[in-house]
Write a structure and sequence with these properties.
Elements (H helix, E strand, L loop, with lengths): L1 E23 L9 E11 L4 E6 L5 E7 L3 E14 L13 H10 L3 H7 L12 H8 L8 H15 L1 E2 L10 H7 L1 E2 L1 H14 L4 E8 L16 E9 L3 E5 L11 E7 L2 H4 L2 E7 L3 E12 L4
Parallel strand pairs: 6-7
Antiparallel strand pairs: 1-4, 1-5, 1-12, 1-13, 2-5, 3-4, 8-9, 8-11, 9-10
């Protein structure tokens, strides 16, 4: 599936900003299942510095410095990308989960060290004993790792309510566990915390999800949104994506933007500024399927 993706972020300040520095994760990464044909950034006011780069996790980035006095900042990202559905192993054919945890712990080879970095608690995945107990309900001794993980995915979908007003970007996993409410970012962090508590590598994935309008209605411009899910590492196969918000294994309708330990590693726009006062952020996303070859 080929997509034309538009992601527009607008910052509106109550006082002028004299200078701002921003790190952008707005260009979809190249991966085994997707090809980024072209990406562009249009920024107003135009930045004095706009340096493309790659972060520690291999995600494409842009570092910008805006030195023009401004009360608004608009960042328009546009990409054309092909996405394929990854092959997924039969859940009951995967290695038992406790063997996976033991394998990661015992193997000190360089490839395994790259995987093992996703074992450790990160700022957005700190969690207590209640989260581990919740995970162990699915991870009974000897159970195949993907079978158990898919059950955990379904339980999060069933036990938690999607509620955009219940949390914000700083809400801890333990609070999400207590509220039983949140958004895609919260559910991804919760499942990552569950898996890491059991010694299983899990990483955070940010991206986009193709949405479909109700029958008989046209899709609204700007109605799409950023999305978040996670991946678990499975021996003899690699990373398998999971979407607890929708209780499914992502297909070619999930477009990967970046991955890391948690949201803090891959936030679409981060930065610091001088001035600005109070500010408002507005985001508009469009994910539009294209004919192949466009």
């Amino acid at each position: 599936m080929r997509y034309d993706i538009s992601h527009v972020t607008g910052f509106f300040y109550s006082q002028p900003v004299s200078i701002s520095h921003h790190l952008l994760h707005l260009s979809p990464r190249i991966a085994a299942h997707q090809t980024n044909h072209r990406s562009s950034l249009v920024i107003d006011p135009a930045p004095a510095v706009n340096e493309p780069g790659t972060d520690y996790f291999g995600n494409p980035t842009s570092f910008i410095i805006v030195q023009t006095l401004h009360e608004t900042l608009e960042i328009k990202a546009r990409s054309v990308i092909d996405v394929q559905t990854n092959e997924t192993p039969e859940p009951d054919s995967t290695l038992r989960w406790d063997h996976v945890a033991a394998k990661v712990k015992a193997d000190s080879s360089r490839p395994m060290l790259d995987i093992a970095q996703y074992l450790f608690t990160s700022p957005f995945t700190k969690a207590g004993d209640e989260v581990e107990a919740y995970a162990r309900h699915s991870f009974t001794p000897g159970r195949p790792v993907l079978e158990a993980t898919l059950e955990l995915t379904s339980r999060i979908f069933q036990d938690f309510t999607y509620d955009g007003s219940a949390t914000d970007v700083s809400t801890p996993v333990d609070e999400v566990m207590r509220l039983k409410r949140g958004v895609c970012q919260d559910f991804a962090h919760l499942q990552i915390a569950c898996l890491r508590k059991l010694g299983l590598p899990a990483r955070y994935v940010s991206g986009y999800l193709l949405t479909h309008p109700p029958d008989g209605q046209e899709k609204l411009v700007g109605a799409d949104a950023s999305h978040a899910w996670l991946s678990i590492w499975i021996p003899d196969h690699g990373w398998v994506d999971l979407d607890p918000t929708n209780d499914l294994i992502p297909t070619n309708e999930h477009i990967t933007l970046a991955w890391g330990r948690d949201y803090g590693d891959v936030s679409p726009v981060t930065g610091v500024m001088v001035g600005g006062g109070a500010h408002e952020v507005k985001v508009s996303v469009d994910v539009r399927p294209l004919e192949a070859g466009v």
